[in-house]
Amino acid sequence: MALEVYFEGVDDLVDHKNTIAKDKSKPDAKYIAAVGSLCDALTTIKTALKEFTAEFEEHIVQKRCRAGVCHGLIACAVRSQTDPNLAAAVAICPTNAIEDQRGEFTVNDGLCIRCNACREVAPGAMEVRDRFPAREAVAAAAAGG
Ligand code: SF4
Q1: What is the mean pLDDT of residues 67-96?
Q2: Ligand 1 test: best mutation among 116, 120, 129, most atoms within 8 Å of CB?
Q3: Which domains does the chain have, with CATH numbers?
Q4: Concatenated DSSP letters for 80-118?
């Protein structure tokens, strides 16, 4: 299980936090409050890891965001070259990432900031894809797909 190392890491941090909290040589109120905040943050992280284990593993291992919102894992692409709203998508793109390559529009991934403006004005012309499709193919092959 890939996330076990993260659980262990959080446990180590909580243990370290408990050791710090017991340190009588650090009675400063701000210090104690900071330790308390650290504890809250660690608990939140650990709870999230436990409640959403499959989603975290999918992001970390497969480099895939099923919801299509994690910018590092998605890429914007032209879905339809003939969609009537494609010109609007090109016009609204703030970084000119949608480029005309001899009559075929493509998205320059290096320029795209994943602002989603193109999909809002032209949902039929633009789409979000996995940024690492090879990993998806490998995962599907491993699963017998
Ligand atoms: S997501 Fe934003 S930056 Fe990327 S192609 Fe669409 S409009 Fe341009």
Answers
A1: 95
A2: 116
A3: 4-61 (no CATH), 71-130 (3.30.70.20)
A4: -TT-TTHHHHHHH-TT--EEEETTEEEE-TTT-----HH
